[in-house]
Amino acid sequence: MKRTLGTCYYPEHWPEDIWAEDAVRMADLGLTWVRVGEFAWSRLEPAPGQLQLDWLERAIDTLMAKGLNVVLGTPTAAPPRWMLDRHPDMLAVDDGGHPRGFGSRRHYCFSHDGYRAEAVRITRILARRFGARAAAWQVDNEYGCHDTVYSYSDAARRAFRDWLCQRYQSPDALNQAWGNVFWSMEYDSFDQIDLPNLTVAQANPAHALDFRRFSSDQVVRFNAAQVAAIRAHSNAPVSHNYMGRTLEFDHFATGERMEIAAWDSYPLGFLEDRSEAPARHKRRYARQGDPDFQAFHHDLYRAVGRDGRWWVMEQQPGPVNWAPHNPAPLAGMVRLWTWEAFAHGAECVSYFRWRQIPFSQEHYHAGLLRPDSAAAPGFAEAAQVVRELVAMPDVEQAQAPVGLVFDYAAAWAWAVQPQGQGCDYFRLIFDIYRGLRKLGLSIDILPADTRDLAGYSLVVIPGLVTIPERLMTAIAKARAQVLIGPRSGATPRNRTLPGPLPPAIPGLDVTVTRVETLRPDMPVPVDGAGAVILWREALEGTADVLDTDVAGGRVAMRSGRLTYLGGWPDPGLLRRLLLRACRDAGLPHLDLPPDIRVRQSGPTRFVFNHGPDPVAFEGRTLPPAGVAWG
Amino acid sequence: MKRTLGTCYYPEHWPEDIWAEDAVRMADLGLTWVRVGEFAWSRLEPAPGQLQLDWLERAIDTLMAKGLNVVLGTPTAAPPRWMLDRHPDMLAVDDGGHPRGFGSRRHYCFSHDGYRAEAVRITRILARRFGARAAAWQVDNEYGCHDTVYSYSDAARRAFRDWLCQRYQSPDALNQAWGNVFWSMEYDSFDQIDLPNLTVAQANPAHALDFRRFSSDQVVRFNAAQVAAIRAHSNAPVSHNYMGRTLEFDHFATGERMEIAAWDSYPLGFLEDRSEAPARHKRRYARQGDPDFQAFHHDLYRAVGRDGRWWVMEQQPGPVNWAPHNPAPLAGMVRLWTWEAFAHGAECVSYFRWRQIPFSQEHYHAGLLRPDSAAAPGFAEAAQVVRELVAMPDVEQAQAPVGLVFDYAAAWAWAVQPQGQGCDYFRLIFDIYRGLRKLGLSIDILPADTRDLAGYSLVVIPGLVTIPERLMTAIAKARAQVLIGPRSGATPRNRTLPGPLPPAIPGLDVTVTRVETLRPDMPVPVDGAGAVILWREALEGTADVLDTDVAGGRVAMRSGRLTYLGGWPDPGLLRRLLLRACRDAGLPHLDLPPDIRVRQSGPTRFVFNHGPDPVAFEGRTLPPAGVAWG
Amino acid sequence: MKRTLGTCYYPEHWPEDIWAEDAVRMADLGLTWVRVGEFAWSRLEPAPGQLQLDWLERAIDTLMAKGLNVVLGTPTAAPPRWMLDRHPDMLAVDDGGHPRGFGSRRHYCFSHDGYRAEAVRITRILARRFGARAAAWQVDNEYGCHDTVYSYSDAARRAFRDWLCQRYQSPDALNQAWGNVFWSMEYDSFDQIDLPNLTVAQANPAHALDFRRFSSDQVVRFNAAQVAAIRAHSNAPVSHNYMGRTLEFDHFATGERMEIAAWDSYPLGFLEDRSEAPARHKRRYARQGDPDFQAFHHDLYRAVGRDGRWWVMEQQPGPVNWAPHNPAPLAGMVRLWTWEAFAHGAECVSYFRWRQIPFSQEHYHAGLLRPDSAAAPGFAEAAQVVRELVAMPDVEQAQAPVGLVFDYAAAWAWAVQPQGQGCDYFRLIFDIYRGLRKLGLSIDILPADTRDLAGYSLVVIPGLVTIPERLMTAIAKARAQVLIGPRSGATPRNRTLPGPLPPAIPGLDVTVTRVETLRPDMPVPVDGAGAVILWREALEGTADVLDTDVAGGRVAMRSGRLTYLGGWPDPGLLRRLLLRACRDAGLPHLDLPPDIRVRQSGPTRFVFNHGPDPVAFEGRTLPPAGVAWG
Q1: C347 vs C309: CA distance, rounded Å
Q2: Has residue B25 got a pLDDT over 80?
Q3: Percentage helix, strand, coil, to 5, in chain A?
């Protein structure tokens, strides 16, 4: 497939008389996609029912006249002010009970039926009018951004009670499932059940977990309603632009209804804002971004997209404005980020935004152009990518040799019962992902309901609190080395924990008899290499003991292809475990310098230098931000 | 007295058909006490007035049939959901004005008359039915846990106004006592007085202090009502299970009505959660708990219990789930903690809980048994204690040579006027207690209204902002060395501060003329040893100057047996002061290695190794977690 | 002008029979001013309309009988409790939506018309009765203290809408000015506009900025109403006692209506509470205060006061009670602080307070006297100043050689768009001020609307986001070296940023093409000396490049007298820039030891040792807290 570039454009922000020139410059640059419409509701419908779609049609036609394809965004992430008069109770409510007001964006509760109907209405209007023109769709914008999945509104409370009623059918069944006999928390009626905020002590984790499941379902339902409205009038593929490290709803579930998964990649902002890496790491990569964060999300969204179709819908082109610190990228990084996305299979990388805006919340957010329309530094790097794309053959994709199971429900289970500070599911998954990448391995992210592990040499299943039956079967049938744990299978039926490790994995007799969590300053060294940190299990069973720690505790146990890991590995222990698994799987690995990462894309291997210094690797020297392929 | 062991059991959490086997295993282990009933309200009264007590009777009978004695807990810390329909305004309100909702426990305001009546009603029902069976009672559970003493509800506001009216009789008297002329805060009527939250700047400390006194009185009143209901139908001793480092209500005042003071001892959880010790200390003792924290509370609750009767009602048996980090105890520590409690006079140590629960907020909280009923590591240590108890004579108690005055009202005074970060009364008291323990001294905690100091060689009175008249008299009559200060006697009538040190102590002419508080990085070294930290007073008077600091300030002054200490001592200064006091009192001390602590229990001296390494002491080597007696 | 001393006295706190003796002691000490009346509303009007002014008249007469001049404070910072019954909605509301209640002070919303009328009423009553007696007035107390400028009350909302309507005249004009097309934030009516709290994401910075402008205007209006009431009945000069580092309202705008600017100087409290200096700095100056903080505010309030008239209305005389730590001043510092104020032009330094109070929120706040009326340490230092004042000629003032432009509106612009943690306008200004002071330079603070820069050798204009036209003209006409930036002129019309540096400065062709903010651990070293920290701009243009950083970025560019600085300078870079500017301006500088500061007051040069050690300087040794002049 040919890889393409695009940009995000807000014609309503600029005088109409410069649209045509902008379109010319976009086309001249070599872009083929332009996203419009997102956030434009107050211009599309300035008052209830008073539609003004002509300007958007003119904008779209102007772009299409230059050969640009349009991604049309639904404007539902920014309902206009008049919407509040129609639905005064549509606002989400924070966990302290405060309504989250108008004046920015995402000020709606996913559970509000009235607002959902309005969102469907405007979407249907756009689909009818532009269904033939739009080459692709984006539904809403960045679900979950600004912590907007969880709402404690009256609408959410009503919907939660209904959801519980559907799930449990009777209060007794719910009491039994939640263990409400503890602390006399039993309910006589679903109407007695509140949202799990503002309790005196921690709410029942079962209560909190169901609220997270419910909240995810509300996002899925909200999204599905818009997708259906689009489908009725358009054959163009539909997408949503997800974010980095957003765990509050199940992206696989939203993704099922859409052709394309897109995400918004802000490497520098995310490093500052969404990483627990130590200061020295943040400093070293301040101008390049974390070497693995983007790749992880590329692989994730390739799994979320139908048939592996995915985009970068918004690509950071220069300094942003919303992180604790907002440095400029190292020269070359905009190109590197683009190529890395292609190497991982992106169909399109779309720069956010075309031109820096001289007002508003994104006043200081860079674009490809400066506010005075001069080219900003990212512009030339995009142009370089265009030239390089012309010169090189298509980037192909193939199944990776390594599968890493990633599951949103597991993230929720960790979140409601972390058992210790720092015990975060994403952090665990990302530690494992980084460990694999440092060995030069290419990775496929797999959802927990994967049916088939054929073709993988190595499958890693960390922290998957509940292992679905389907995956159990796949594990049993697989020919891969499978590394399971820590905490994987701890909760077979959402109840028993700690308890016996999944009895349904034939031949792996390991039982977790105790869990402890560790201060960051008390790693437990493992004989041979590395240490267990943060989370440590006590293991029993007849499986072979592979590793023990200096206190005599069993760290890893194996039967045949299956290995159970009873603790959170530090980088040293993880490397030891992965090297052993590679050896046993006959899977070759690389010894990469710290800043180098590679990605095997079908027959092509890409090499990236994420560091600020030149690095010698395999006989050549990559400059800072260097990209090589061959 | 024979020392005994017990456990906490929730029959309602388990199928009735395993109760008998549980009882057998408890008895076989050598336990003699089982606490039941706590938190079971929703099963005892599933709907208002619909009592279902038979199951509890069967459970009690099952336990008693195996010779176990039952402690019956009143279930009032966890009112069922239907209670909220009867008393919608019974919830406590946090200092931001949010009601603290249903869904965990302790969701009641101590000032709500309706709920107090309900609590008395269910207690009376239980006392009638089980008054003859119960061998002991526990009222409610862990008053103050989850910050539940202070409530800013309407019920609290009404009760506070009434309390103020009773105390002051007229607004003018209150205005005068509080100094409300300052900042025009004068009131015309008690109905104008609000609770001291949500003020623009700090509330008047007199206002805040009275709110603390009031709040403590509300706990005392709530508790007394249940005690009276039990007394009417049962002769068994009554207790409450207090917590560690809980200062918000006067335990001596609640304790007056009950025979036994119990507390819930979680050494590892408390070290992580309730200590300002530096990280290196927390790391060293992460698996053993602070070497002095448990001992302090043992001594405290011996003072709170009538005639020195006290228990550990809940003893940590393995990892808990609620602290920032939850490591497993070092092997042997469950035994050590048990013996240390006995050495300090505990009648009973009861392990929490019998079996780890496979659901709920305490899902990950260890028990003596694992969820699958196999023995957890703590089980064998309890069994070892049983064997050792059989082999050794009774542990006797005698008055200690050192008295340390501890007062809840002083804690409130420090809290409302700390004058500097870190100036916390408990921290001061605990610093002093640790300093005494490091010299091998055994200590009695004394309330501030102690009438008689006879028998003590040394009495220490730190931070006792107001010295009651009765204690003044006792000091004057005592033959002990008395070390007073810092801040002791600063507020003779809750008003004048800083001002002359208590003129009623004959012969100690010391005046505090100025108070300053110090950054943690600016200790003021004292000539000879150590330094003054945090809190420093300027002293005048004719008493002898014992110590001066390098700036020429007087640190300690003495007249005869009485010494005033005008600053917060660091460990070096404290050691110097205590060694001098011991010498003057003719009181022998020990030079203990850092991890070793001793307790003299009548004729028996116990030695404990709180460290993770073997320690040589007095010719023998104690292993980690080692206990010796002789 | 003869310099004078005073004190703050609350006769209502003390028995009337000691007033006369207090007056005698004040006069004997050599004080000439006494402030009274502040906070006394509940005694002046115990019930609505029931005035009791006689006691205040007796107090004033008692003081005047001893030759003391009275500053009469209006009591409006502490409305009595009955005011709430008359105006239940007068309370300010915090940004979480909680009313800020009665029980301390400043519990009013500046936008509440009813309360403003009450404030004018009581002021008029006092002015009528005491207009002839008062030698000076103080309006209210410490506007902005306890974060009281911003209120999110209904009254504020109404007033804000009205203010916006006046400013923009139509919603369309507002939408255009704010850029509300972004995120569909457009309004149809002013009644739809809420205050900018509780939005989901950051509010539009234009919205937030207008709220800050509005809030400042409300303070100005509140103050002006009282000033007018006084003027009608009194010819005495009027003042307000401002605070340190209070940026929330425009002091120049309030100051326009009053003769005298006063401020409350608490060097030790402010160092602990209002400084981001590192711990080692706070430790070194813990007993002396920051060496530049007081001087900065002296120079600031000299600019705020009409014709340069300014006072220290409250001077810290010993330990205070409200900072995180509250040490006692080094011996001699009360004298030093007093002399430093005189050196910078203060007419009067008034110690707060006369006698330490034995109750209330200021229980532990030192006075000149102890609670028992004995002299506290500050008393003797005041006496020493009195003796020294007699002996030395008047302290004269003259224009300083250096002007530093300081602007409240710039502070608000930085606050709503900091673009990176730590990018705070005050911090920038204070870094520059300190750099100038370390070179021994005396400084005038200049408002942004300064018309004329004549007489200055060097003018520094850092962070002035919008450069007013008037100042543009003055810069063009000036003969001084002018150092502009960073971020100065970034927003010509509050809109375009980043964009071309002010085109209206003839001859300085510099354009800012990009802004980035830097982690604190990633300074960008500059060739020659120092580094750019925190805020870094990319510069283009034809002006001469003066400095470049190691990454090749332009740091400073010059045309003739005008230099633009495109980044936040660390001390090394700042020193390099200032030394160059001094050289080019022919302005001599000093090489001061770290603890030494000087102030040229007309013909007299004062030298101050702010350190705890003796320092050799210019052939003599200054002791700690030493002051020298000549």
Answers
A1: 7
A2: yes
A3: 35, 20, 45
Whether the Cβ atoms of residue B135 and residue B70 lie closer than 8 Å to each other = yes
Q: Which residue has the tokens 């602990």?
A: C272
- Rounded to 5°, the CA angle B34-B37-B39 comes to 125
Question: Dihedral of the CA atoms A605, A606, A612, A616 (nearest 10)?
Answer: 30
Tokens of C45: 């009007």
**Tokens 């996305």 — which residue?**
A341
Count of beta carbons in the 10 Å neighbourhood of residue B306 = 15
At C572, the pLDDT band (50, 70, 90 cuts) reads very high
C172's CB contacts (< 8 A; 6+ apart) are none
Structural contact between residues C210 and C164, judged by C-beta atoms closer than 8 angstroms: yes
How far is residue C455's CA from residue C457's CA, in Å, rounded to a whole number? 7
Across the interface, do A364 and C497 touch by the CB < 8 Å criterion? Answer: yes
> What tens digit of pLDDT does each residue of C408-449 get?
999 999 999 999 999 999 999 999 999 999 999 999 999 999
- Measure in Å the smallest separation between the Cα of C619 and chain A Cα atoms: 46
User: Rounded to 5 degrees, what angle do the CA atoms C371, C372, C375 make?
Assistant: 85
| Burial grade of B273 (CB within 10 A; 0-12, 13-18, 19 or more) | middle
Q: SS3 for B404?
A: strand
| Residues of chain C found within 8 Å of residue B466, distances taken between Cβ atoms | none
Q: Which of A190, A196, A222, A203 is nearest to A106 (CA)?
A: A222
Which of C100, C327, C357 shows the shortest C-beta gap to B182? C357
For A229-281, how does the pLDDT look when each residue is reduced to its tens digit (9 = 90+)? 999 999 999 999 999 999 999 999 999 999 999 999 999 999 999 999 999 99
Phi first, then psi, for residue C458 (nearest 5°) are -140, 130
Output the six-digit token pair for B494.
């809750």
Q: Which of B179, B194, B518 minimises the CB distance to C102?
A: B194
- CB-CB neighbors (< 8 A) of A321 in chain C: 417, 419
Residues facing residue C261 across a β-bridge: C240, C310
Which active-site residues of A does the annotation give? Answer: 142, 314
Q: Taking a C-beta distance cutoff of 8 angstroms, is the pair C81, C87 a contact?
A: no
Partners of A184 on chain B (C-beta within 8 Å) are: 39-43, 75, 78-81, 105
A103 closest CB neighbour out of C203, C499, C514 = C203
d(CA B184, CA B198): 18
Q: Which residue has the tokens 């419009």?
A: A36
For A301-335, letters b (16+ CB in 10 Å) and e give: bbbbbeeebbbbbbbbbbbbbbbebbbbbbebbbb
User: What is the set of domains in chain B, with CATH numbers?
Assistant: 156-206 (no CATH), 402-585 (3.40.50.880), 596-629 (no CATH)
Element housing C134 (H / E):
none
Neighbours of A61 (CB within 10 A): 13
Among chain A residues, the shortest Cα distance to B323 is held by A420
| Gap between the Cα atoms of C231 and A128, Å rounded | 69
Helices first, then strands: H and E counts in chain A: 18, 24
CB contact under 8 A, A366 and C514: yes
Residue C404 near residue C436 (C-beta atoms within 8 A): yes
Whether residues A207 and B103 touch (CB distance < 8 A) is answered with: yes
Q: Is the pLDDT of residue C228 over 70?
A: yes
pLDDT (average), residues B59-68: 98
Q: At C145, is the secondary structure helix, strand, or coil?
A: coil
Is A92's CB within 8 Å of C495's CB?
Answer: no
Q: How far apart are CA A148 and CA A108, in angstroms?
A: 8
CB atoms within 10 A of CB A391: 7
- What local confidence, expressed as pLDDT, does residue B494 receive? 41
- In this complex, the chains that touch C, judged by 3 or more CB pairs closer than 8 A, are A, B
Residues facing B599 on adjacent strands? B606
Match 């696989």 to its residue by tokens.
A252
Q: Are C559 and C507 in contact (CB under 8 A)?
A: yes
